[in-house]
Amino acid sequence: MPKAYWITTYRSIRDPEALAAYAAIAVPALQAAGARTLARGNPAQVYEAGLRERTVLMEFDSVAKAVAAHDSPAYQEALRALGDAVDRDIRIIEAID
């Protein structure tokens, strides 16, 4: 079964305190669901329509496990803490074998 990658790209962060509250809940929730954070922070370089905003890359053992992590009660609690503090895009993609 191929691994999966969860990619979060932020377009804007309106409330850094809410983002920090989200992270305090989301990181342990996602780790408990099997997430391994591979990279996070602001991009070193952007091209085309890229924004110099926060990006997070996590690895899961499968797409099903990544989706289950997102839909878990623990992560949903983190999303409630985040509210509308950010504008972002989350994508889960399957790795190439």
Characteristic key phrases:
97 residues, globular, 4-stranded antiparallel β-sheet, single chain
Q: In a few lines, what is going on in this structure?
A:
The chain has 97 residues and is of the alpha+beta class.
Gap between N and C termini: 8 Å
> What composes the largest sheet?
4 strands, antiparallel
Radius of gyration: 13 Å
Net shape: globular
Number of beta strands = 4
Question: Which topology does CATH recognise?
Answer: Alpha-Beta Plaits
Q: Could you estimate the helical fraction of the residues in percent? A: 25-40%
Q: Beta-strand percentage?
A: 25-35%
Quote the average pLDDT: 97
For the record, the count of structural domains works out to 1
One letter per element, helices H and strands E, the order comes to: EHEEHHE
Top CATH class: Alpha Beta
What CATH architecture do you see? 2-Layer Sandwich
Annotation field: number of helices: 3
Q: Strand sequence of the main sheet, in spatial order?
A: 2-3-1-4
Walk me through what this model shows.
This protein is an alpha+beta fold. It has a single domain, classed as Alpha-Beta Plaits, CATH 3.30.70.100. It is 37% helix and 32% strand. The protein contains 3 helices and 4 strands, in the order βαββααβ. The protein has a 4-stranded antiparallel beta sheet. Helix 1 packs antiparallel against helix 3 (73-82). The longest helix is centred in the first third of the chain and has 17 residues, at 16-32. The mean pLDDT is 97.
